[in-house]
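Q: what does this look like with heme C bound?
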Amino acid sequence: MKNISASLALVSILSATILFIAYCIEPVKANTDLRGPGYAGSTTCQSCHQQVYDHYKNTAHSKATSEANHQNIKASFEPGHNIYSYDVNTKLEMQKRDSCYFFQVYNYGKQTEEYRIDLIFGWKNAQTYMYAKNDHTYELPLSYYHSVNKWGTSPGFPTVQPYFARMVGRDCYECHSSYLDEKTTSVISSQEKFDVKKMILGIDCERCHGPAMQHVTYHLDNPADKKAKYIVLVNKLSRAQKIDACAICHSGNDRAKIESRFYFRMGDTLDKFFMRKHYSENESLDVHGNQHGLLSQSKCFTRSANMTCMTCHNAHQDANADLSVYSQTCIKCHKETHVAECPKKAGIGEAIGKNCIDCHMPKQASGAISFRLQDSSKFSSYVLRSHRIMIYKDSMMKNLH
Ligand code: HEC
Ligand code: HEC
Ligand code: HEC
Ligand code: HEC
Ligand code: HEC
Ligand code: HEC
Ligand code: HEC
């Protein structure tokens, strides 16, 4: 036992040092994970799974929620880019002071209120910010949209005046974080209280793989054993179990819940968590957050035996931006027949094999999420890739002309 705790201490000192240099924040000891003694914490995995860790650490999963500091905040607080006017008399100014970030409210030229950003949601395409007060978190009225590098109203927020009372309950954290220390579980979900200082932000290794302390201690003690022990073996899972390890957060949010998503462990299936919902073939699903529902409507999925999210994605990396890589995956199943015989090939030539995606998985605007940018009278939409793989007549026209 001594041996194990000595090695564990070493691992935690090592990872603590690395964390300290990289992030300059209070290092978390490996064996004091908030979820309890069964959990080791992501930094502990680094020593044996360096490559996975390096790939993972700057992904959208790792940063699905994060602390408000200069490494994580992507919005602009520079003069000239940090004002949002609701009307001539009401504006918000986003300010950085020391290492903190604030929303300041101005009415008739006078500053009337100030809110500090405590937490961040989002990373790659957009960020929305939270402030904490009395064991609750609240979403701030403006978000930052990276595709246009501008502040705009947070989705669903009023465009006529700033609003600071939208409480963000457990629901958002169930998909965007790894642990919450709940104080009360009220029937009214918006009243859920939790200790904002005791959260595990981001989607960490054990959020997907389950508690791994026993795995860590075993392998520290048995370095010669190269076969994984005391951890769920992903390859032994059924297709449904593999899919559901992603679908727990990627199948929309419109079904009656049976159990909190926080209790999901790799190997579980969705039926324990939601009332199962079968989407009819023609039902139109929103592209936001429902990749599972859309993929399930595709013939590629229903008529093949092994397709999962990992057919096209690496669980430890963001979506690859290179569409030719996905197209190679399409061609593997479609054996180039389409490349050779596609009626559209005449106009495109061999290039058709490099991008099956824009024609068969076009980008679509989410109907659920829209926002208004500064200096614009119109609403903009959040645009995502449809995971319903099929023949789209409209997008064909666009791609061909
Ligand atoms: C002391 C070394 C050690 C540490 C620390 C460690 N692992 Fe492992 N892990 C192994 C070894 C050895 C294997 C088997 C070889 C391989 O797959 O890399 C393995 C395999 C795995 C696998 C693959 C299982 C499969 O499906 O085949 C997962 C998942 C995993 N580890 C997760 C974790 C997580 C999560 C952590 C941190 C909480 C962690 N490991 C920390 C040694 C370690
Ligand atoms: C605990 C919830 C959760 C689980 C489990 C989960 N995801 Fe995610 N995933 C998210 C959230 C939340 C985001 C958006 C993060 C952000 O940008 O803030 C996301 C983003 C992504 C992205 C987009 C990254 C990018 O390039 O923009 C991909 C791809 C993805 N997930 C695939 C998967 C796959 C594959 C699995 C299963 C192995 C999985 N996810 C499991 C919650 C989850
Ligand atoms: C979004 C969920 C998710 C997160 C977060 C995640 N994994 Fe995985 N991991 C998976 C899935 C799914 C597989 C199986 C991949 C496959 O079959 O292609 C996997 C495979 C592995 C494997 C074995 C195969 C390999 O790629 O080496 C190891 C080891 C591993 N994960 C460790 C980790 C560690 C360490 C972390 C944190 C740094 C982590 N995982 C974070 C979902 C996740
Ligand atoms: C059912 C799981 C789920 C819930 C609940 C959820 N999200 Fe997300 N969220 C996702 C996924 C998945 C993505 C990324 C892909 C997408 O939009 O389909 C995402 C994307 C985002 C993004 C954009 C990140 C980026 O860079 O693209 C923000 C910001 C965000 N969510 C905030 C929130 C807030 C705030 C709440 C609560 C009001 C919330 N989410 C609730 C799963 C969820
Ligand atoms: C795992 C194998 C597999 C992969 C990977 C795959 N498909 Fe398919 N796809 C199928 C099967 C099986 C069918 C159904 C064929 C049938 O019924 O004749 C299908 C059908 C289709 C159809 C016809 C759909 C309809 O509604 O008529 C299109 C278009 C298509 N696939 C495009 C793609 C594209 C583009 C990709 C890559 C993004 C892709 N497929 C990846 C197996 C796959
Ligand atoms: C047939 C291939 C394929 C499969 C299977 C697949 N994806 Fe994707 N996914 C893509 C492509 C292509 C993109 C877009 C990449 C881009 O445009 O940069 C993407 C992007 C994403 C994104 C980023 C949001 C967006 O719209 O750009 C998320 C999240 C995601 N996938 C989740 C999943 C999940 C979860 C599963 C399993 C339920 C899954 N994907 C299965 C091909 C696939
Ligand atoms: C310019 C747009 C475009 C591109 C690029 C494209 N397709 Fe298609 N595809 C179509 C259209 C249009 C149809 C319907 C043809 C018809 O009904 O006559 C189609 C039909 C299909 C079908 C079902 C019909 C069949 O039997 O062939 C499959 C499978 C398919 N495409 C796969 C692919 C794959 C794989 C790629 C990439 C190698 C690809 N497509 C690239 C436009 C495109």
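Residues 121-128, 139, 168, 171-172, 175-176, 249-250, 253, 288-289, 384 surround heme C (ligand 4) (CB under 6 Å). The two ends are 69 Å apart (CA to CA).
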